[in-house]
Fold:
Amino acid sequence: MKYLSTRGDATPRHFCEILLEGLAPDGGLYLPQAYPQVDAATLARWRKLSYAELAFQILSLYIDDIPAADLRTLVDRTYTAQVFGSAEITPLKPLEPGLYLQALSNGPTLAFKDMAMQLLGQLFEYQLARTGRELNILGATSGDTGSAAEYAMRGKRGVRVFMLSPEGRMSPFQQAQMFSLQDPNIHNLAIEGVFDDCQDIVKAVSNDLAFKQRHHIGTVNSINWARLLAQVVYYFFGYFRATQAEGEVVDFTVPSGNFGNICAGHVARMMGLPIGRLVAATNENDVLDEFFRTGHYRVRGSRETFETSSPSMDISKASNFERFVFDLVGRDAPRTAALFGTAVAREGGFRVSDDEFARIAGFGFASGKSVHADRLATIRDTWQRFGTMVDTHTADGLKVAREQRRDGVPMLVLETALPAKFAETIREAVGVEPPRPPALQGIESLPRRVQVLPADTERVKAYIRDHT
Ligand SMILES: *Cc1c(COP(=O)(O)O)cnc(C)c1O
Structure:
């Protein structure tokens, strides 16, 4: 399996060549040259596998430059009941007939990003040791990415993490989770701006190829292909748990921001997994919902980016969206480059053609939007009727899933975080304190390691220079 860029750089690259990369050199995103196809007989064989075995089978289709025995070891070390709280790793929780939550948030930071990041920690350490290299991870987070990356990389040999977050915009719990890490290889940088300012700085630093090379800069942002690949696995796993046989179809609703999670669903569907619909649920920051309703992709500025009670979805542009659009336009790289390299950069967005818009349904995509009042009502309703507490992001998903459910088709809502991370809104909704795992009690009062910086690329570069 080789990889290409959505903007036309067709240099064939192996998995390990892009493992430590973010953007391709031409500014595009990496995708496999073709999606491996999985037939019904293969699905039937995979149905009975444990999560780790299933992960090994799927990853093997995309990774041909890590010996199978090594890959198996890395995967087995990652997906354990000890790290993810149960042997099922991502168990289904039925709410009512045909409606399920798929629990993706029982890893160390209580959000679904652990699913990919814990594997990445293993892959990075393995690859760096094998090549005698070192890596300085530069990332931007609105909350969950940062903590998941830091918990995956803390203490790992050959790796440092420089994590940018918008100052004061994460929940107190998220801040405590990240800033309380005392590992010397973890650097928290709080940026005076919004998430997209952080993301722009990461892109600017990555585009400075000389700096990038000199300081061994890499990324674990959601544009990293290995991360996306790791997320493909739980769509298969959820499918097998919600169905009896291979002919059946299921729908997924995915609380979405940067389009990484749902893009993994798109990849699973392109491989032949019988997914009917992929429903993108957004919060008040409805860039994606607007696109799927109108065909108009309109990036928002800082002033139009709302701070919401589902903060991990507070984005103004969706960094993985280019991957889907590349497939939507028939893998036409010049067209993709014109849309994302030119139109987004110059005009802040684009409108796809009528023809392209008409093709979206064939890819299964649908969408919906949920606002603060919906979130509260959904959290309350789910608590009162089922005794199940959902976090604010999952509530956005559940609200939209209820609108999009189809008769006779199981709907799986991806549970992307635990309520303990967003206690304030849970209290507002149901007047009850969400339970917190014992290991995380009292973390708000631990000493903090964080550096505040202005939204200035040069200042961030200087900090990295001083600490590598
Ligand atoms: C990151 C995150 C999302 C959004 O996922 P994307 O891959 O960015 O679309 C949703 N919910 C939670 C809790 C998250 O941490």
User: Anything to note?
Assistant: Residues 111, 113, 144, 222, 255-261, 312-313, 393, 416-417 surround pyridoxal-5'-phosphate (CB under 6 Å). Residues 92-110+226-430 form a domain with the Rossmann fold fold (CATH 3.40.50.1100). The radius of gyration is 21 Å.
